[in-house]
Structure formats: C-alpha cells, structure tokens
C-alpha cells in the first residue's frame, strides 16, 4: 500500500485523469474531492461492497421460494415487458435456465451488461424470461451461466413515484437519446425459506436500453430509497409496459 502525506488543498493523481484533493480535515474525518471522467464510477467502499453482497444474495434465490412469494399477492398484476422486436433472421440461442429449464431466445433479445454486474464481472449476457402466470416478477437469466439468475421487477410496481434521474453518462454509455429510451428493473432478494420477507433493491436499479440491448446497474444514493424495500406488504394496482418474446423449449418444472 502506498502511503502519502497531504495537506488541505493538496492533491494526488491516480492514473492519467483522476485527481483526489484534500478539502478539509475535521477531527478524525477528512473531506475529499475527486475529479474523474464520467465513465469512472466513484463509490464509497462500503457502498460498493454492499452492492456486491446484495447481488450475491439476490442471485441465491430458489424457484420454489419465488413461487411461494408470488402466491403471497392477493391482487394479480398483469402486464407486458417488451424488448426490441425480434428479427426473423436473428439466430436463436438455446440454453438452460435454473428457473425455466431449457429455453430459447433470439440473439437480438440478449441484454449485454458490458461491465457485468457487481459481484459477477465475468458474465455480461442476460435474457429476460418470465412465466405469464408469475407476473409481476421476471427472471434475469445469465446466458453463459445457467446457475446465475436474478428475480427482478419493475420498481414502479412497488413505488409508483419511483423516478430517479439518469446521468448524462448513463445515457451515453447505453446509447440512449433520452431517459425515455431506458427502462428500469430492480433485483429482488428472498431469504432462504422466508419468501414473505422478500425485499427489493431500490438503491441499485438496472437500466436497460431495449433498442440497443444494453444494460447497466447503477447506484442511487438517496435517503428515500432502500436496498431492502419490503415487497410483500402491498403492491399498488399497476400495469407494466413491456412484453418479452421468449419460448420455453422444455419446461422441467
């Protein structure tokens, strides 16, 4: 570990284009200013680690617990979740899903997360799958790892006024002309054997540009949003806006 001594107003340079400045010292606390390109994600270490832990927990759900969680809803939520229309000439990719068994999707329906997801940086390609009887939940299934999947939903199904702002760099990275081009999903976590305690991570939504097949998980550091938002309590009457073209080849469940 490199150890440096700096005074207020002095800075250090990391790489070619990251500058860290000491702004203020108050007792045992130091205020730092960080000047970095917009494509560099700067997070407090505890937040970055929490996001990794949240994703690891979210990916550990069992399909049986997910089914029980769905049954906890007394008011069904119908809806459609549409990615870009599949082209007739698009190759079909067949793979295994831990939730749906053998499935096939058009390759132009694959969502690519160029940086992966925190905790799973080596896996970039995912498909959104769902059983129409299990709305409003969807399965974000990793195409290249059958054991990796996330239960997700649209945040507006939980919090109707969920409207976090998208940064200009997020739009550029996802090749979106405006925020209207992007859709949001949030991961759901089900404690093993306790589906009634399912929570949603409203602090780290998934941004998806359906037209480009690109996705990214971002961090929203706002006090009104929780990374453990209770889900089962109530879901307002809500109709999602998308639909998914997905074919179950051999449902093993």
What's a quick, concise take on this entry?
With 253 residues, the protein is of the alpha+beta class.
Describe it for me?
The strands form three sheets. Strands 6, 7, 8, 9, 10, 11, 12, 13 and 14 form a nine-stranded antiparallel sheet that branches. Strands 1-2-3 form a three-stranded antiparallel sheet, with no helix packed on it. It has two domains: 1-36, no CATH class; 45-250, BH3618-like (Roll), CATH 2.30.290. The termini are far apart. With 253 residues, it is of the alpha+beta class. The protein has helices at residues 45-58, 63-71, 168-173, and strands at residues 11-14, 18-26, 29-35, 92-97, 101-106, 111-112, 125-129, 138-142, 149-153, 183-189, 199-200, 206-209, 214-217, 229-230, 247-250.
Keywords for this entry:
alpha+beta, 11% helix, 28% strand, 2 domains, BH3618-like, single chain, 15 strands, disordered C terminus, 253 residues, nine-stranded antiparallel beta sheet
Gross morphology is globular
Measured as a percent range, the helix fraction is 10-25%
Helix and strand content put the structural class at: alpha+beta
Integer tally of domains:
2
Radius of gyration: 20 Å
Poorly predicted parts: 74-80, 234-253
CATH topology of the largest domain: BH3618-like
What is the CATH-assigned architecture of the largest domain?
Roll
What count of helical segments does DSSP give? Answer: 3
Order of helices and strands: EEEHHEEEEEEHEEEEEE
Report, as a whole number of angstroms, the end-to-end distance.
51 Å
Write down how many β-strands occur, each being a DSSP E stretch of 2 or more residues: 15
Largest sheet at a glance?
9 strands, antiparallel
Fourth CATH level, the homologous superfamily of the largest domain: BH3618-like
CATH class placement of the largest domain: Mainly Beta
């Amino acid at each position: 570990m490199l150890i440096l001594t700096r005074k207020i107003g002095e800075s250090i340079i990391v790489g070619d284009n990251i500058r860290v400045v000491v702004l203020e010292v108050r007792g045992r606390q130091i205020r730092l200013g960080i000047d970095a390109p917009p494509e560099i994600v700067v997070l407090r270490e505890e937040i970055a680690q929490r996001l990794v832990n949240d994703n690891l927990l979210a990916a550990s759900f069992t399909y049986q617990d997910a089914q029980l969680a769905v049954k906890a809803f007394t008011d069904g939520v119908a809806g459609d979740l549409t990615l870009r229309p599949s082209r007739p000439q698009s190759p079909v990719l067949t793979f295994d899903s831990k939730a749906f068994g053998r499935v096939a999707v058009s390759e132009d329906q694959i969502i690519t997360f160029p940086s992966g997801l925190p905790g799973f940086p080596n896996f970039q390609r995912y498909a959104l799958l769902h059983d129409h009887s299990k709305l409003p939940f969807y399965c974000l299934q990793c195409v290249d790892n059958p054991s990796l999947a996330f239960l997700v939903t649209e945040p507006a199904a939980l919090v109707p006024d969920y409207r976090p702002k998208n940064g200009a760099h997020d739009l550029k990275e996802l090749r979106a002309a405006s925020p209207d081009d992007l859709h949001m999903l949030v991961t759901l976590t089900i404690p093993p054997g306790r589906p009634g305690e399912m929570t949603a991570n409203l602090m780290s939504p998934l941004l998806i540009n359906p037209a480009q097949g690109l996705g990214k998980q971002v961090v929203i550091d706002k006090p009104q949003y929780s990374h453990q938002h209770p889900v089962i309590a109530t879901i307002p009457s809500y109709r999602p806006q998308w639909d998914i073209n997905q074919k179950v080849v051999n449902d093993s469940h």
